[in-house]
Prior knowledge:
With 400 residues, the chain is an alpha/beta fold. 38% of the residues are buried. The radius of gyration is 24 Å and the shape is globular. The protein is built from 13 helices and 15 strands. A ten-stranded mixed beta sheet has the order 8-7-4-9-10-15-14-11-12-13. The protein folds into three domains: 1-77, no CATH class; 87-227, Rossmann fold; 241-389, Rossmann fold, CATH 3.40.50.1000. The site of magnesium ion has 7 residues, from loops.
Amino acid sequence: xxxxxxxxxxxxxxxxxxxxxxxxxxxxxxxxxxxxxxxxxxxxxxxxxxxxxxxxxxxxxxxxxxxxxxxxxxxxxxxxxxxxxxxxxxxxxxxxxxxxxxxxxxxxxxxxxxxxxxxxxxxxxxxxxxxxxxxxxxxxxxxxxxxxxxxxxxxxxxxxxxxxxxxxxxxxxxxxxxxxxxxxxxxxxxxxxxxxxxxxxxxxxxxxxxxxxxxxxxxxxxxxxxxxxxxxxxxxxxxxxxxxxxxxxxxxxxxxxxxxxxxxxxxxxxxxxxxxxxxxxxxxxxxxxxxxxxxxxxxxxxxxxxxxxxxxxxxxxxxxxxxxxxxxxxxxxxxxxxxxxxxxxxxxxxxxxxxxxxxxxxxxxxxxxxxxxxxxxxxxxxxxxxxxxxxxxxxxxxxx
Length: 400
Ligand SMILES: [Mg+2]
């Protein structure tokens, strides 16, 4: 029996490998294809393979003495935004997945043994790492955006950055398919620095376990943070992306932090009072908050403010009445809305973050990053500003 082509035309070509089987653009539509034709055409839509791009159910139907297969598509084909339109998030393999075992093989036995190990284990997916819930939440937001704006390219785009050799790519692709992640862009540098590529991709945020590379990215003007493996991890929302930011040296410059470090708390308060109407300069993560705000506004424009799948938080050691007003005036002047602002006046951030349950929290001081992580928050360090020379576990900065 001859195969029955999809009645909808024109149809896009199969995105994976050369194939003559048409894919319907609408979900929940069916294509009847003769089973013999599938094998003859080497169709990638092998019913034994579950792809993240096209999920389908297989049904057998007997027509006379031949068998046809109905492929019922249950998801819409996803568009890939161009870098200049997307909010581009670059994540390293070592924070998206857990690769400690492989890292030890590399450190103890060298590159050749490491590559051999990876190839031998290429059908074993890596376990999720600290950036995994964040990346899943980005995909959730993308799904909501696609529902509201089917043609828009203003979406999150995720790039997997790795120093690995291309041989390891097979295991990474298998892992991405296993976890049903939507990552099409890889940057496999084979040991070279990825920073130049990140600039070319218009990267809005770079997350890595390598502090030196994160500092290099920050020096190039790319928002970046170092991630760690928390011993415990609180559950986070699966329907809303929640991102929390520290203020000084994260959203704002370290101008006020410098006054505090050099002259103490009284001088800091005096400086903030005198400069209440002077805007703070921008910090390394301001651009990322701006990008989140741009996407939030797309939901607001469709009347979805109350169930917006992106929520942002400011969690700062500043006090509301004294030094907080300058921070709020600055955000307002930038046109940035932050959904919730918590002025802790020196109280520990960990308990507050435990309640917020962000997918990621950014802070420039390791003291706060460690405090948050101890309580199960996925915290990332932004190695920027004067606090890098002062902050330590034994000598935390008091509230301002
Ligand atoms: Mg700070």
